[in-house]
Amino acid sequence: MDWFGAEIRYWRELRGLTPKHLGDLVGLSADAVEKIEKGDRLLSAEHAGKMDQELRTGGVLARFRPFAKAEADKRRIEADRRRIVSPSPRPRGKLDGKQPTREVTLEAHAFAASPPEGGWDDPQQVFSQVRALTGATIMGAAEIVDSSIIALVESYEARGPQALAPEARSLRALSHQLLADRGLGANDRRDLLHLAGRISALLAYMAVNAGAPLLTSQAYAVEAAALADEIGDTNLAVWVAGTRSLSLYYAGSYAQADAIAAAGIARAPASAQSIRLLVNGRARALGRLHNRYGAEKAIQQALDLAAQHELPSGLTSCIALDEPYSHARLLANAVTARLSLGDAGQVNELASQIEGLVDSSDSAWSRALVRLDQATACLVGKSPDVDRAMELGRQALRAGEATPIRSVLQRAQELHQAAAPWSTHSAVRDYAAALTTWRSSPAAGLLTT
After folding, report:
1. Predicted TM-score (pTM) of this structure
2. Which helix (H) or strand (E) holds 12?
3. Distance CA 152, CA 199 (A)
4. Residue 117 has pLDDT above 60, yes or no
């Protein structure tokens, strides 16, 4: 199943429809719907619009379809070119007293690269080039992909999404190339599908943090979800649902963010991964929608589910694929939800519970985000403390200046907007100047391009 077909199936199942029922609604047979979902047939522009309407997707399928068509056209052209250009196989046995050599495939040209200026070659590229030149499955390639994923996660906050995205994209290309080997055994293929899904999931999250267009993060997430479904990896599927919800949240599509999170929870309601979906997905989106009952219920459900699991200590990494949210990470997200509801007292109470962990953690982003929430809470309470709010805001900017991310920028700007009634206050002017300087840095500039 390709990523676009997986997206269609996701929305169909979310609305509780069978292929036949959806087909009846949009004028297609059940067989046609199934072929479209498998990637054997491309959805027409007309039917994409009809499906968007019937499935209430907000226009997702119509926006995705041009990309799916471009990929299908590219695959068709490449297949035609291979049939025309690929040499005929040589007969077995000796030729002119020499053993026949294997023809170099066209794939080799795709990985041709100039020699590095210094140091060692990239191991990922070495594996890619050998695979392209020989057409053979390379022992150890899966291991290098796995260890590279671990390295990406461990260095994510120190280096940031912009610096790591090229490495992740290289890994994605390598994993896809390895999966193209028709000689793969079933177990090897499953392992590689698992790794490829994790890479796509990481790229989806990186795209959100880097401020990439919504369609970019959603495309990576859809690919990851399709790969997870292919091998029945529920843990990864739920994690990806959380990232899809997050991307929609930062795009301002709060109702859709809540719907995606709710669908993910329905897949594995008792899973520790659902803690993230409840508090990072549902509670924060419902808070933005001013749905107090729903947000408070989601926070309580997250706390109840957390009590059923042995959670890691400290402040867990925001991009950890395998471990669930720690209690501190749960509360940090509850702070954001409470802020959207205008609960200044609750924001300060929850923030004080995790302040020590946040300050002592390696996560500069968490320090920045919690301080920005606290700063905004200082302005929405009954007795606004402008000086305190702006000081916390400046601390947050300093914490997040090394590797800027979208969420810090967005909340920093929201703090500035909340301080508008005190625009003539010297502390507000100082914060505005600091924010302008922060945004003008080369790294932060990448978030807005």
Report:
1. 0.72
2. helix 3-14
3. 10
4. no
DSSP labels for 163-185? HHHHHHHHHHHHHHHHHT-TT--
Residue 87 and residue 134 in contact, taking contact as beta carbons nearer than 8 Å: no
Give start and end residues of each alpha helix (H) in 180-278: 186-209, 214-231, 234-250, 254-267, 274-276
pLDDT digits (tens, 9 = 90+) for 7-26: 888 888 888 899 999 999 99
Calpha distance 257→244 (Å, rounded): 7
* C-alpha dihedral sign at 78, 81, 87, 92: positive
The set of residues, in sequence order, having a beta carbon less than 8 Å from that of 140 and lying 6+ positions away, is: 127
Distances (CA, A) of 349 to 298, 346, 355, 377: 18, 5, 10, 11
Q: Is 291 exposed, middle or buried (0-12, 13-18, 19+ CB in 10 A)?
A: buried
Which residue stretches of 361-425 are H helix? 364-380, 386-399, 406-418
Give the 3-state secondary structure of residue 2: coil
Interatomic CA distance for residues 409 and 237, integer angstroms:
28
Contacts of 83 (CB under 8 A, 6+ apart): none
Surface-to-core class of residue 242, CB atoms within 10 Å of its CB (0-12 exposed, 13-18 middle, 19+ buried): buried
DSSP state at residue 102: P
Residues 36 and 32: their CA atoms lie apart, in Å, by 6
Looking at residue 106, its pLDDT comes to 30
